[in-house]
Amino acid sequence: MIAVLKQGTNDKQIENLSSWLKGQGLDVHISKGHDHTIIGLVGDTSKIDEDLLLGLEMVETVKRISEPFKSANRKFHPDDSVIKVGNTSVGGVDFAIMAGPCSVESEEQVMAIAKAVKAAGATMLRGGAFKPRTSPYDFQGLKADGIEILLKAKAETGLPIVTEIMNANHLSMFEDVDVIQVGARNMQNFELLKELGRTQKPILLKRGLANTLKELLMSAEYIMAGGNENVILCERGIRTFETYTRNTLDISAVPMLKELTHLPVIIDPSHATGVAKLVKPMAMAAAAAGAHGLMIEVHNDPAHALCDGPQSLTPEAFADVTKSVKRVLDAVKEI
Description:
By secondary structure, the protein is an alpha/beta fold.
């Protein structure tokens, strides 16, 4: 349930109403927009008399929300959320570009890539220290040493870092990480999501291989229900019957999610296609569809990458992609 308050309602009135609603055993979320303040109620709202709420002078309308995701729902929070990450942000009018290697292989490798992607326009450095792999015999990442290398690259370039967590027991290693990524395989690792909800770190939540948008939003809800509203959604392709690409990129997810939720939405064209030459057109399509950013894999020697070389761009190719994406963003602004 949401209560839309009239313009001119002061902070004291909002505080009094919020206290009364909390006394009814409800969680209360307050969202102040440009024109109205919205109070979102989570819990057993059946005990709340709508007519009683509507009878209050400060209340303009009362609506019941049927969707099971509440905190992530745009009806609760009509304005776009903007997630601050160091000296940059994701959401609203900002366009984030997270770029870097699939996995951290060495300090020399990460430093070279970090400097190259920053020069080409990246706003964050991505890199895998912990790597979930289908085969137990594949490279599993440098783990804690990998995070240390990413932090050195951050100190050198100033780029905030994004890296994936696989186990809640590893959270202490992520204290200095700017954005914690939840990979597709862990999208429904609810115990992990609960733990991340107790932090205030920005969380990049990737859509699972075969999950619906509703399921993605419910996973975001797990994090937000714990008190952490700093969630970034990532469409990274879903598994279909198509075999020419690694996955099928669901571009329609961008406008659909933007209608359903206030959370920022980015696209990962690298994992979505698994083919380096397809990254550029899909990145451009994502920008045209209204995405708030991109996550792109970049490697200085893709042929010898320890992980996902076929989908990784060279720094030169990445620079070409960022220029093309900027042209698309400029064109979209004219529409």
